[in-house]
Recover the amino acids of this structure.
């Protein structure tokens, strides 16, 4: 078996322009990204640089224009059945209670309802929502909805977890609580994680490795950093560690110009 849970090799993604179908836009160019089994990898880069595009390629939700995707050494064909995807936006069904939302993936897999309910309740308890299974999404806080979504993904016991800026909409205190919960749950089973974020502090605090992407178009990796902070970590406390500060300085030195390029591009689009 391959040492890599997920391999994106020489990936290029080109889209047709919405305004002019004869024009093409290369979002990602000749990008290679590999995540080992049990490794927590974060990808950072300017807004709109193609981070989510790479995640969608790894999930099998988007087909690359060229390049290859492998999952534990096997070519990916269609949806990545060994991955669980936690979206940036709300993905809970508003007409289903918390426990019914967590159950839904298990039901689609053919798990009997009674067994699925037992597993869903166990996962709600693991994310601190044992007494809230009967609540509907509108009755839960933002942090509680994120915990429910996390339980929904983990209940399927995926070998790879794909997370697309899952905590960006939360306040800082709730975000740090969720980050620590994710790290605790990850430490228990050591799944491969590909975590997309625009927050460099978050990336360093949580990851084994941080990959920096350039500004688009033609996004590509321009830096890769091993995060040699000891585990277990508290995401709040680790920020005061001298090594954290040194890593932040090194990575930001690579990111800064690309962030400014990305910001300039956003202003140009808005003009």
């Amino acid at each position: 078996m391959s040492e890599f849970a997920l391999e994106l090799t020489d990936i290029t993604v080109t889209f047709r322009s919405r305004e002019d179908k004869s024009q093409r836009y290369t979002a990602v160019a000749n990008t290679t990204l590999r995540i080992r089994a049990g490794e927590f990898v974060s990808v950072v880069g300017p807004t709109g640089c193609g981070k989510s595009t790479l995640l969608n390629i790894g999930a099998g939700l988007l087909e690359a224009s060229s390049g290859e995707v492998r999952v534990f050494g096997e070519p990916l064909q269609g949806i990545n059945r060994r991955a669980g995807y936690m979206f940036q936006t709300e993905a809970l069904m508003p007409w289903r209670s918390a426990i019914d939302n967590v159950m839904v993936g298990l039901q689609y897999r053919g798990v009997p309802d009674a067994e699925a309910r037992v597993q869903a309740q166990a996962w709600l308890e693991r994310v601190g929502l044992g007494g809230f299974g009967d609540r509907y999404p509108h009755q839960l806080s933002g942090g509680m909805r994120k915990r429910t979504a996390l339980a929904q993904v983990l209940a399927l016991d995926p070998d790879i977890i794909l997370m697309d800026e899952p905590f960006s909409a939360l306040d800082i205190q709730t975000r740090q609580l969720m980050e620590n919960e994710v790290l605790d749950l990850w430490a228990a089973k050591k799944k491969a994680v590909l975590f997309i974020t625009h927050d460099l502090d978050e990336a360093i605090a949580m990851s084994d490795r941080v990959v920096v992407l350039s500004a688009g178009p033609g996004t590509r990796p321009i830096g890769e950093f091993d995060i040699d902070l000891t585990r277990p970590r508290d995401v709040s406390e680790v920020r005061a560690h001298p090594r954290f500060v040194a890593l932040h300085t090194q990575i930001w030195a690579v990111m800064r110009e690309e962030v400014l390029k990305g910001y300039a591009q956003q202003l140009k689009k808005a003009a």
DSSP finds seven helices and ten strands in the chain. Helices lie at 51-59, 98-108, 113-126, 142-154, 172-189, 200-206, 242-270. Strands lie at 4-16, 24-36, 40-44, 66-71, 74-75, 83-86, 160-164, 192-196, 209-213, 221-226. Residues 4-82+158-270 form a domain with the Rossmann fold fold (CATH 3.40.50.300).
